[in-house]
Model the fold of this input.
Amino acid sequence: MEVVITPHGAVVNEIVAGIVARVLQSRAAPVLGLATGNSPLGVYRQLIERYQRGELSAAHASAVLLDEYVGLSPDHPETYRAFIRREFVDHIDLPISRLFTPDVDAGDLSAACRDYDQLIGEMGGVDVQLLGIGRDGHLGFNEPGSSLASRTRLKTLTRATRDDNARYFDDRHERVPRHVVTQGLGTILEARHLVLIASGPAKASPIARAVEGPVSAMCPASVLQLHPHVTVVVDDEAASQLRLVDYYREAYDNKPSWQDM
Ligand code: F6R
Done:
C-alpha cells in the first residue's frame, strides 16, 4: 500500500486526477470505478478541466458506480446516478450509455446485484477504482460488520452514515434512504488499482484504522490491506493519526522515477 501525504486537498486532487488520466491514456477500453460523496469531487473537477483543455478523452471508456440508494424515485436529484452525471460524467465525453449503476428498481434485487458483478467481470474488471471512506470506516456502503468477501448486495446504512448524508437531503436524516445497493468488499478488491482519497480532520481516525489497524470487518476499509495495488492519497489532516507518517513521506519523496503510481 502506498500512502501519499500532501499539504492540502488541491494536491490530493492533482495526484489522483493524474492516475485516472494515465489509465485513460494507456488503455484501449478503460473501465473507471467511480465513487460519489465529497471526497472525489475535486478530482472530477480536475478531470473536467483537463478534458476542456483537450488534454484527455474518455470517449473510449466505461464507468461503473460503487453504490446507489434504494427507494428514491429514478428522477430524484440525489440518486447517485444523478450525482455522478451532474458532477462529472455529463461534463466529459464518456458515452452515457457506458455509465453503469446498480439497478435498484429491479423486481428481483438479488438477481440485479449478481448481474452487476457479472457485468463488471464481462467488461474485463475495473482498471482504477476511486474510493472515499466513511467516518465509521465504511468503503462503498459496506458498513462495519460487512463480510470482507462480500459481493454486490443490499445493505442497511448505519445511523451515523445517514446523519452524514443528511446534508444532501435538507439536513433531514429521516429523508436519507435506509437501504443501498453497494459493490461488496470482495467486488471492490477485484479492481486492478484502488485509490482511496481523504481530506480533513474527520478522516484522520478512519484512515489510521484502515491503513494501520488490524484487518477487520469492524473497519471495512481495512480490507485494502489485502490488495496488491492500493494508493491512499491524503492531506496532512487526514494523515494526522498515522504512526508511520515519516516513513510514508520518505518513501514518496524518494520514489524511483521508473515506479508508477
Ligand atoms: C460514495 C461511497 C461512500 C463515500 C463515503 C465518504 O459512493 O461509497 O463510501 O465515499 O461515505 O463520503 P464523503 O466523501 O462525502 O466524506
Summary: The first strand starts at residue 2 and ends at 6.
